Amino acid sequence: MVRYEVKKFKGIINKLKCIDSWFWCAYTVNPYNGCAHDCIYCDGRTRKYNMHSDFEETIFVKKGAAEALDKKIRQSRTMLPDVVSMGGVCDAYQPAEVEYKVTRGILEVLHEHRFPIFLLTKSDLITRDLDVIAAINDRSWATVACTVTTVDDVLAMVLEPGASLPSKRFAALAKVKREHPAIQTGVCAMPIIPYLEDSDDQIDALAARTKETGADFLIFAPGVSMRDQQASYMLRKLQAAFPREHDLFMKTYMADEAFKARWTRDMNAKILTACKKYNLAIRAKRFIPSDHRKHNYTIAERLLNKSYEAQLAGKQWKAYFWAGHGVQMLEESIVDVHARGGLPGIKCMTAVIAGEITPWIPRRQGLDRFLPGKAVE
Ligand code: SF4
User: Fold this and answer.
1) How does pLDDT run across 229-281, given as a tens digit for each residue?
2) Is 97 in the pocket of ligand 1 (CB under 6 A)?
3) Whose CA is nearest to atom 8 of ligand 1?
4) How is domain 3-277 classified at the CATH fold level?
5) How many whole angstroms from its chain centre is CA 318?
6) pLDDT of residue 373 exceeding 50
7) Closest-CA residue to 286 (of 303, 273, 272)
8) Which residues have a Cβ under 8 Å from the Cβ of 154 and sit 6 or more positions away?
9) Distance 39 CA to ligand 1 centre (A)
10) 122 CB near ligand 1 (under 6 Å)
């Protein structure tokens, strides 16, 4: 039996130190503490998030969250509009949202302040808020994604007992795309549990169903993180529901690092092949602001995507990754940095990568090229 407690919390929005290159978010907001979706693998139970022990049974509803966010944005001199990801250690559209509407209130505030959003959920309740999501997309940018780890509704009832069935999540995504084609949509296949969700047929069906919704991307992270109390919760549930798969999982994925690395590599290749077959992007497109960050964000996106592709191919990826973050963190336009010969001074930039990105940087036009600190549009 889930218990709800309405409570005031300090601080509603969290600014990330580094951009998240899966969801391209710079901020996170958790409208609730705890999550009644009760996924057996939920990373929110990990000790580092400091959640209460009955995470799936007691849900704290953040009282006054929208007002607090509005005040925070109004008072801040440094908060530039950038992508806000809702949830992370909770699902913003878990059952509590039907009654409390904390997520909806937050979306209305973000819309007013022109903040873009990345929504990731396992609930079809998200379609209730399509009006405000579409308004945000018209004004700035919105992406709607559903996590789907299996297309099998019966299996999902055990793995994600409180969430909408995968068939309903696909239907929700199809509705978003049908009614608002300009909104970017996609599926996040993360985690994928070995022996339960990793067969060729399951992966092919996952990509096929994603495509049928009209989605733009399928992003994936096969495997499952296993840490402290999250690991013990998951293993207990796995053993009770799937003793054979539990034993296999313990003997291989949990016990043998070489097996785990091989399995992860093979799964990445399998999902990549399915994405190619169904013409699905493996990364979401990012929000590009129109101010001085415009070219920085475009170039950082290209570098971070290159890093990811290299990682999938088993190649060196860290140089692109850190150079991408170096460009992302610039406080002035890369056009100006380049104009004064400053590319080598960007944090973590190598000479090779500086040479590679130079053709990507637009040149100043006409007399502007003689002015200091004047970026091109
Ligand atoms: S929906 Fe997300 S936050 Fe909620 S229990 Fe599942 S994994 Fe955890």
Assistant:
1) 999 999 999 999 999 999 999 999 999 999 999 999 999 999 999 999 999 99
2) no
3) 42
4) TIM Barrel (3.20.20)
5) 20
6) no
7) 303
8) none
9) 6
10) yes
Residue 35 Cβ < 6 Å to ligand 1: yes
55 CA distance to ligand 1 middle (Å): 10
Give the CA distances from residue 190 to residues 121, 159, 184, 202, 299, in Å, rounded to whole numbers and listed in that order.
12, 13, 19, 14, 27
- Nearest C-alpha to atom 3 of ligand 1 is from which residue? 90
Q: Note whether 205 and 163 are within 8 A (CB).
A: no
Select from 28, 33, 41, 42 the residue to mutate for testing ligand 1; criterion: most ligand atoms less than 8 Å from CB.
42
Question: Model confidence over 164-209: pLDDT tens digits?
Answer: 999 999 999 999 999 999 999 999 999 999 999 999 999 999 999 9
- Residue intervals of the chain classified under CATH 1.10.150 are 294-370
91 lines ligand 1 (CB under 6 A): yes
Pocket flag, ligand 1, residue 88 (CB < 6 Å): no
Residue 90 alpha carbon, nearest atom of ligand 1: 3
Cα 54 to Cα 42: distance, rounded to the nearest angstrom: 13
pLDDT in tens, 38-85: 999 999 888 888 777 788 999 999 999 999 999 999 999 889 999 999
Question: Would you say the CB of residue 38 lies under 6 angstroms from ligand 1?
Answer: yes
Q: Right CATH number for 294-370 from 1.10.150, 1.10.4160, 2.60.40, 3.30.70?
A: 1.10.150
Q: What burial letters (b/e) apply to 111-140, b meaning 16+ CB within 10 Å? A: bebebbbbbbbbbbbbbbbbebbbbbbebb
Q: How far apart are CA 184 and CA 24, in angstroms?
A: 13
| Whether the Cβ atoms of residue 322 and residue 296 lie closer than 8 Å to each other | no
Residue 85 β-bridge partners: 28, 118
Cα–Cα separations (whole angstroms), residue 51 to 16, 55, 126, 197: 19, 7, 24, 28
What residue's CA is closest to ligand 1, atom 7?
A: 42
Q: Which atom of ligand 1 is nearest to the CA of 38?
A: 5
Residue ranges matching CATH 3.20.20.70 in the chain: 3-277
